[in-house]
Known about the structure:
Low-confidence stretches: 4-35, 216-224, 263-270, 303-317
Number of helices: 8
Number of strands: 12
Radius of gyration: 20 Å
Strand content: 15-25%
Amino acid sequence: xxxxxxxENDLENSAAxxxxxxxxxxxxxxxxxxxxxxxxxxxVEFEWFDPQKQDFEGFQxxxxxxxxxxxxxxxxGAIADLILEQKLLGSTVKTDGNEGDPHALLTxxxxxxxxxxxxxxxxxxxxxxxxxxxxxxxxxxSFLPANSSNEVGLILSERWVNIATEVVPPMYEMLLEEIEWxxxxxxxYTFTHYLIWSKIYHAIPSTLDExxxxxxxxxxxxxxxxxxxxxxxxxxxxxxxxxxxxxxxxGTFDYKKPxxxxxxxxxxxxxxxxxxxxxxxxxxxALKSAVVALKTEFPFSPTTAGVTMDESWxxxx
Length: 317
C-alpha cells in the first residue's frame, strides 16, 4: 500500500524553466563532459510503502549493508521476518511501484518485547559487547540489559548510496505517526528511548593512487566531517549529524570482523574507506524534535531530492 508519492524532476530542466511534459527515463548527460565534478540526474518517482513480503530479499541486502562486515554474525532473514511482521510500522522507498525493490528502509524493533527471540538476543548481546569497547558508548550498558526498566526501540535505517538524504525525514515522520497509532491501539511501542544503528567511515588514501600517481578526486557530494573518539570521521548517513544534536550520547565502534584490506568500491572510486559502526541514543521525546530539525535541514522538494549518479557511485551493497 502506497503511503505517499512525490515526483522528482530533472534539476537542469527545472532550473532552465523547461515545462515539457515528456517523461525522462534515461541519464541526462552533463554539459561539461570530462569534468571531475560531473554527475547525472534521473527523473524519479518516489513512493513510500509499508513493508511487504516481496521486500524480504531487498531487506536482507539493505541490512547487510547497514551491519557492515559483522552482518554475517546475524540471521538477516530472521530480522527481515520480524520487520515484515510489523506490517503497519516502518516504511520503504521504491521507484518501480509496489512490486519493485526497496531502495530505502526505516523501521523500529522493540528490544524488550522481542528479547526472547534468538535474533534479538544476538543483536543485544552484540551491542553490549561493542559498547564495552567504546568509552563514548559505555552508558549503553545500562540501557539494554533484560532487567533494565527502559523500553528501547532499535531504529534500523538504510538506503542505497545514490538515494538522497531528503527521502529520510518523511520516513521518520511517518514512523512517529505509526508508533502513535500503534500505542493508541495498545500495541507494545511505548518507547522511552530510541537507539539508532548507523555507520561512519574514515577516509584513507587509495593504494591505487600510490601505484599510478594519479590525483585523488574530491569526496562525494554531501559527505560531512566530524570528530568522534578523537578521530575525524565522515557520515554515510548525513542525517546523523542532525540527530547528534538531540542525542543523550553517540559513539562509534570497531567491527569484530576485520574490514578487508584494499580499496572499497561501494561508494568511492578514488578513496579507500575504513568503516565503523555508529550508534545514537536519544530519549523518545527528543526524536520528535529531531524529526522537525531533519525536515528543515533536508527538505523534500523537486529541486533537492533527486537521485544522483556518477561514475564512482554504485547501488551494490
